[in-house]
């Protein structure tokens, strides 16, 4: 139901007041109807989704037995009528007995709050569509004098609950919840009603919208810290001043939309439509992380049933966070001379196979990268000149596989190579490893136009899964 289309009838014309006119209750009633309609119309112009649930709470014990019993319900109907239960409705119960429902035949049942539409004789008890009951009021004094108390009767909306997919058009209604049953009893389905604030989702507990988004925010910040915190320089110290690392770039993209998203999320009064926009912005930044697939096409915010849109966006973000791993430490080689690169390897690492990434200069491609690296000398720094004298390249290289590239959060086509360690006979005749832990790992290539802009080393973190 769209409040801007389905519930906005033609605005009544204002009452004509004139001196000496014979006043009757009709004039005041029509004046009240006019101003209520005008206020509702203006509210809808400012916020098309100006109706829905503000807060509600159910009796969980009764619910498990198949009885919907509201302990609290605050909402705005599609025609602008404000409901605050129990309030003046107490001690009248707002409940619906579904204990006789055959849950094998009906997989889910939707429960609506309904109030008869306001028509002629809305407070008359003649007929079935009485919108208001007349309740005897309290003694009210004249505010000018504080005296002359009289009884002022009140009109109270006739609330009722209805089960089914739809409600007759003679009622103004708001869907509240969906139920399903099994051998353990009756339970809430994931459905969220139209909500005026995200705090209204609290009745769903841990699966509510606000808590789901809060869990997503926590996961994003955790991933941000993981990705940013594993980047080390060649001395093993954290360095955050460069953006060359794919992991750092991914972390930067993740955090861009987070402050705005968190500010909206921390307030239970934020409208879900605003949160949906914040989440869609977050989806865009996540899609900009290296290797991310295109984001889903998110539809317009659906006030009647907002969760499918939120769920689609949340699932995409979670999938990308699971793909973005921080299982590798990222170390940058130090530039040496015209065509050399070196890095101090930490102790205790496996040097059997190492992954390196070459960052190209303008105009360089895979062929030039492979050509330069293939002719380079690759070994511990103290062995480089031995390799030069023997005209031996040192450690062997080959292009990394797509799974290896994806594992370090790089896009397909990145210039990533696997360096395979080997041994060389030293001057003393003993076999020595070309690359050793705790030594300076050096790559010395030809000083030509194919020298890359930078080289990055990716080392598996302790306890990380085995590499692809």
Q: Could you explain how this protein is built, in words?
A:
This protein is of the alpha+beta class. It folds into 3 domains: 51-116 and 159-195, no CATH class; 209-323, no CATH class; 328-460, no CATH class. It is built from 11 helices and 24 strands. Helix 4 runs antiparallel to helix 6 (258-266) and helix 4 packs parallel to helix 8 (307-323). The longest helix is centred in the first third of the chain and has 22 residues, at 25-46. It is elongated, with a radius of gyration of 35 Å.
Task: Record keyword descriptors for this entry.
T6SS_TssK, single chain, elongated, six-stranded mixed sheet, alpha+beta, 468 residues, 3 domains, Type VI secretion system protein ImpJ, four-stranded antiparallel sheet, 11 helices
Helix-strand blueprint:
Elements: H1 3-6, H2 25-46, E1 52-58, H3 60-64, E2 67-76, E3 82-85, E4 95-97, E5 109-116, E6 132-135, E7 139-140, E8 150-151, E9 154-157, E10 160-163, E11 171-182, E12 185-188, H4 209-229, E13 231-232, H5 246-256, H6 258-266, H7 272-287, H8 307-323, E14 328-332, E15 334-336, E16 340-344, E17 353-359, H9 366-374, E18 377-380, H10 384-390, E19 396-399, H11 402-407, E20 416-420, E21 423-425, E22 431-433, E23 440-444, E24 454-460
Parallel strand pairs: 13-14
Antiparallel strand pairs: 1-2, 2-3, 2-4, 5-10, 5-11, 6-9, 7-8, 11-12, 14-24, 15-16, 16-23, 17-20, 17-24, 18-23, 19-20, 21-22
